Amino acid sequence: MATSHRHTTRDVLLWLGIYVAAVTLPLFALLAGSTGAGRGWAWDFAMALGYAGLAMLGVQFALTARFRRATAPFGIDIIYYFHRYLALLALALVLAHYLILRWHNPAALGAADPRSAPGYMSAGRLALALFVLVSVLSLARRGLRLEYDRWRVLHAALATAALALALWHLAGSGRYLDSAWKQALWAVYGAFWIGLIAYVRVFRPWRVSRSPWRVGRVRPERGRVWTLELEPPPGQSLRFSPGQFAWLTLRASPFAMKEHPFSIASSAERGPGIELSIKALGDFSSGIKDIAVGETAWLDAPYGTFGIDRHPDAPGFVFIAGGIGIAPLLSMLRTLADRHDRRPLWLFYGNRAWERVAFREELERLAPALDLRVVHVLLEPPPGWAGEQGYITSDLLARHLPARRTEFEYLMCGPTPMTVSVERSLAALSVPVRQVHSEIFDWV
Question: For the segment 323-337, what is each residue's pLDDT rounded down to a tens digit?
């Protein structure tokens, strides 16, 4: 779960160019010199929308395949948001394809009854219905209280079935597939999509299954937070940068699609094990307290670009956390302490109540070991509280940061409303946007 906004322009443009090429190449290739033309502009436009929409939907599988090199310039959380909103755009294109044909030439669609309609036409209608269903379930998952693991399996199954049906529809109704090379082009795309599905659902889980981790300890923290101390297989260790995260699977096979992303909270300078600090918020996280020492854990890690190591020349850091958003920032603080780093540091830590402030005692110990100033901000302060209360605002930040605050790098992690609010506050303090790095807290 990570984002950093400082990337090389070359890498960003490279991967954006690859995406645009993957989406547009089939469109231009299939429409070039096609004998399927001749029914007017509306017909050709509808066909273009259909091909473009299908290409975009197919590339969606690549966006969630978690290829480190491709996601590094953006952060995997941004990629997942990209996946979500581009899927809606692709669905809109496919819907427009159908609606234009329905308005312009309804006879071309034929009968809707599957008993009399050609199989490929029924496949197209069913694919469209499944793509709509996938989108609705994704957008309304929390409102429907659809459990995350169940939704993931359903999402993958429906999307795969919809894509297979769409390819059947394309092959059967492809007036524009009028040459062998065009047919080969879409065959390559189909094989690529099948390969992606095999990689995500078979190869990667198999690779994870070869390195079982062990639960060494389950440690309670304040604020309904539990820390898992995980031990790697003998002779192995995990090299990561502070701020990165891991996909964790417990009490299930790596093939079961029951993995969840959690920030690594331990120091990158220690090992070979790692710590994941997890707040009891949902079905999976609420069960962490019941995990027994010695149980097997499966890790796919590390991922993410959020962290201090991307800014080695920073004169200082300002950390801003909300609740369990402290986890990746704690990894950075622990790492800086182990490195004996003496750059100036500030931590603004927002919580509801003082008794819920996880790791507050450790932060007190870290402060003198580092050049660290900790500012606790409470929504419900106890009687006699002399510290900050309410929300983290520009006025609050200005009270504690020095005049040279625009020189520092800012890293924040917390609920989305907090992140958006603090980003606006930093802009009001003239902090350059390139120096503000936010981890998106709820992208899954």
Answer: 999 999 999 999 999
